[in-house]
Structures are given as C-alpha cells and as structure tokens.
Amino acid sequence: MVRVTVKWNKQVFEDVELTLNGPVTAFKETLQGLTGVPMARQKLMCKGGWKGLLKDDADLSGSGITDGKEIKLMGTAEVIAAPTVAATFVEDLSAAEQAAAGQVLPAGFVNLGNTCYMNSTLQCLKAVPELRASLRAVDSGEGAGAGQSTTFAKALARTFETMDVATEAVPPTAFVSVLRAAEPQFAERNQRGYMQQDAQELFGAVYRHVTAASADVADQFGIEVEEEMKNTEDDAEAATTRSDKLNMLVCNIQGGTGNSIKIDHLHEGLKLGMEAEVEKFSEGLQRNAVYKKSLSLKKLPKYLCVQFMRFFWKATPNSRDHPNGVKCKIMRPVSFPEVLDVFPFCASDLQERMKVYRDVEDDGILDGGAAAAEEKKEGEAEAGGEEMEVVDDELKAAMAMSMPPVDAGPGLPDDFKGNYELFGVVTHKGREADAGHYIGWVRQEGDQWLVFDDDHVEEVNTEAILNLKGGGDWHMAYLAFYRARD
C-alpha cells in the first residue's frame, strides 16, 4: 500500500491510500467518496505510473508507484438531488427509496479492520441534524489551501449521505483513508493489521477537524467552563479564575477495596471530575501548597458528550513484558439517567437564571397550573386558553427583564432549565483497553432505539440502554450523547 497525492480540478488530496496489488475499482471508490465523481466518470492519469488513462482491469503491482506520487483525476462530481415527495405506496419504492424514507432499518458500517471504534461513534454523530447541516455547508475551497480539515469534513458529509440511502452495510473506505491521513495514530498497525483505537480519541479528532472547517459545530458541542484555584493552606491568598473550553464532560470512576470514594452514578462521577486537589508553588507561602481546583459550567451546548473514564494507565515497573506500564479498564458499574440535569454543575449566575424557570415549572405557573385547569369551566375553555397564553407571554417577558444578563448557550432557548435527553451511547465490551469491541446505540423515537454492531443492526428499547452501566462482561457505556430538552 502506498499514499499518493490526487489532484482534481483545483483541489489537492494528499495521503490517499492506494493498494497496488488490489483492484483499481477500490481506489476509484475511495476517490468517489472524496470528490463525489462517480467511478464511471473518473479518468485517471499518472506520469510514470501507467500509460494513458487507467483501466479498471489494470495491474499496478509492478508500476513502481511510490509514496507521494501525483495522480490527476478528471471528471465531474455528481450533485445529490434533493428528495422529492411522491404519492406512492411503500411497496412500490425501491430498496434505496425505502431506506431514505425510514421504512427499513438503517444500514451499518462494514468493519475495515478494527474500525468499530469509528463505526459506533459516527452512528451517534449521524443522529445530530445540526452537525449534518454544518457539514453540508462546508465550502470545498480551492487548491491545497482548502485545508485538510475541509477535506475531512466533506468526506464525513458524503459518508453520512451515502448511509442515508444505503440498504446494505457501507464500507467507509474514503473516510477511513482521510482519517488516517489526517490523524496518523489511527493508521497504527501491528503484525495482525490495523490496531484497535479509542472511541473517545476518535470523537476528539472529528471534533477538531469539523470545528476547523465549520465554526458552527463548536457552538453545537462546545462547553465553556470556569476554573477556580483556591489555596487550601493560605486563606489570605485570593482565588484565581480562568475560562476554558471543552468538548465533553468526564465521569471519573472510583471504587473497590480500600477506596473511600465510591462512584455508582453518573452525577457522582461528574462531580468528582469537576473537583480536584493539585499541588503547585504558592508565591505567598514560598513553597508548594495544596490547591482546590473547581470547574463550573458557564455556557452550555445543545449537544453534550460525556466520557466514562474507564481506561487508565497502571505502572508495572517489575514487569518484563510491560516495564513502562499497561492500560487497564475499570469494570465498576456506573448508572446513567435517561434525562441528565446539569444544573448542579453550572456557574452561579447561570444557575440563577435557570432557577427562575425551574421554580416556575415546579409551581405550575407557566403553561397553566393544575389548579387553574381544574377551575376552568367547560364553556370557557377556548377563551380561558387564550387568556392563559397572554399571561404566560407577559410573565416570561417580565422574568426575562429581571434575570441576570447571561444566556445558557448558543442554540438554547431562553427558558432552558438544564435538562438533557439521552440519544446515543458508545459502549465497549471486553476486559482489555486496547482490544475488545465498540458498538453504537442510537435513539429513534420515544422508547425505540437501534443498536449498530458494525454491519449488524437491530431494534432495542430504552430499558436495554439503561442496562449498559457495566459491572461485568456485557457492553458498558463509554461515551454518552445527550441533547438539550425543551
């Protein structure tokens, strides 16, 4: 296998994988995913690689093509037409049309050699409509200056579009090629082939590249936090604060024999992850001192990713096989809710704003209280409803004027109360951190979910999802995806 440079019009794609002893059609399929040029329209030329246009039955094993070789692609990309609404019966639709209409189970991804970490995570991200829209809106740009992140985002957009109409499992060949070129760690190999990778690191890589290509994505997933450092040994030293941005929250997991802290639920692990003690030099004491570090949420995203910190590095200085240590997995069960309330983790000014609406909801003032509904006379239902709407609007306006001048975050309603609904989970099965298997679980409607085990897809319910808390050899949650709940 070699990595070549492909020039198409004014765009340049670097580090595209080409298997010299494989079929030419496999390379063309990769290019179709990158550029949108159908395989039948592709005309490939390579000075010193082959004569004229590359034929589908050509043998490249003896071509002498090496890493960095430039290949020129000619052809027009196919524009994906917007779906049209037709009055027809489901049985009259083609398999692809049924898939697009949601009449059959969505397709999974083919595992291309330990790519389950990627397959499972992408299935969850595919369920975010705002992300899909941002990817479609990414400008292709011109020339090499368009950037690797733009290429990354466009490849991901095309992968999702292919999945929308697929009736059979899709091999994400083009996106894997772009991913491994942009992030070499995902191209690591051992004697058995490509190595297993971490789903959280894959999410981080996707986030970095798509936010570089589209600033909108940072608003969809980015979390603004405030970090406070307080010297626990010197009350005279003023606390310091600084702002930071995260793309996920972390649930720290502790427990077991001899550990005084037992983490059994997600909110406990989140609290532990947002408070820590660190040792650093104190100017006032002129020595190292213990500081308490506290995080609070300043701005919230519409979509929230939570990582369960199940993997950790354990030092093994006396081991011959692993003198530098080993990566271990924490099997302890940690439950997580269907609706996550982040109010306790928010900064005080944001809590003050959300508390107004939370208190109003508890009292039943907005949207009509229960007592008021019972007192409404049958003949006054319509008029009373209009009056209640006016009162609601006036009350909301009055509260908005009296609240702190902060907002919960981009894309969130003014009356957001801090509740998030679970819609996606990436699980890991197995006792080894660098092995095992990842699976994606994605909510459809109500109590219905789909489980994506690479190319195998089946239906489950919410009860099955909430059982993914760990504690044994069953699938256990590693990443949880929540969306803001109105």
Automatic annotation (TrEMBL):
> Cross-referenced Pfam families, in alphabetical order?
ubiquitin, UCH
* Domain Ubiquitin-like as annotated: residue spans: 2-74
Q: Which residues form the USP domain?
A: 107-485
- Enzyme class, UniProt record, top EC level: hydrolase
| Biological processes per GO annotation | proteasome-mediated ubiquitin-dependent protein catabolic process; protein deubiquitination; regulation of proteasomal protein catabolic process
Can you tell which superkingdom this protein's organism belongs to? Answer: Eukaryota
Report keywords, A-Z.
Hydrolase, Protease, Thiol protease, Ubl conjugation pathway
**SMART domains the UniProt entry points to:** UBQ
Q: Name one GO molecular function term.
A: proteasome binding
The protein's matches in InterPro entries, at most eight in alphabetical order, are given as: Papain-like_cys_pep_sf, Peptidase_C19_UCH, Ubiquitin-like_dom, Ubiquitin-like_domsf, UBP14-like, USP, USP_CS
- The protein's Enzyme Commission number: 3.4.19.12
Reaction(s) the record says it catalyses: Thiol-dependent hydrolysis of ester, thioester, amide, peptide and isopeptide bonds formed by the C-terminal Gly of ubiquitin (a 76-residue protein attached to proteins as an intracellular targeting signal)
Protein family membership: Belongs to the peptidase C19 family.
Record's protein name: Ubiquitin carboxyl-terminal hydrolase
Look up and give the organism this protein is from. Answer: Phaeomonas parva
